[in-house]
Amino acid sequence: MNGTLVSRVVRFYRREGLPALLRELCVRPYRRLVLDWHYVFVCEQVPEVPPPPMELELRHYRSAEALDAEVRRSVVGELGAHMGRALDEALAGGAELFVACVSEAVAALQFVRPGRAVDHWFVPLRPNDAVLFGGTTLPRFRRRGLVTWMIRHQTHYAMQGGGRAYADVKVWNTPAIRAVESAGFRRIARMRPLRSGS
Ligand SMILES: CC(C)(COP(=O)(O)OP(=O)(O)OC[C@H]1O[C@@H](n2cnc3c(N)ncnc32)[C@H](O)[C@@H]1OP(=O)(O)O)[C@@H](O)C(=O)NCCC(=O)NCCS
Known about the structure:
This protein is an alpha+beta fold. It has two domains: 35 residues; 155 residues, Aminopeptidase (3-Layer(aba) Sandwich). 39% of the residues lie in helices and 24% in strands. It has a seven-stranded mixed β-sheet, sandwiched between helices. The longest helix has 18 residues.
């Protein structure tokens, strides 16, 4: 560390305090070096769709207005208000939402967005490509193959227009990586998200 760097660190510490300094020195680099990285996956062959791993009703929504109030309530209640906002943003941005319900209870969600509705992504997309995102299984339904089946099903659906299906997963998210790979996707890159306008 040279003198200028040390004096900048000391000035920062005096101005912002120790927690902010630790965040700046440890958390931010850790986030940049590890947490922010994504694997990018592609699926080029329409996958087979086996029977679902449990008896479920699959619901399909194309707009926030069409979303059943009880589905929204259950998502917000079990996954938090941020998921309610994510639902609205995704549906307003041209995504479609699939919801798996088991005995009327929401069990899993998966979004899919056509390439034509994506401004910029990790790799260039054609209009008839599709991006799968936001796959989530509610905690009490996890580890039963539900999201793997949802990904297969939605990929099959999204590839009917002749394009490819893509997905991205944070590099540390082992369950999601395994689900995407089991559903027939192949890893093609390790990248950080593009910034808007880049
Ligand atoms: C990631 C997530 C969607 C997986 O859902 P799920 O329905 O439990 O997944 P599946 O049962 O289909 O399992 C997928 C794979 O992950 C494995 N897996 C599931 N949970 C795991 C865990 N906690 N640790 C390690 N592996 C796990 C399964 O064994 C399976 O691997 P396999 O095909 O090699 O046997 C779920 O954990 C979740 O909702 N997490 C929070 C949201 C999230 O991270 N979403 C991903 C966005 S890209």
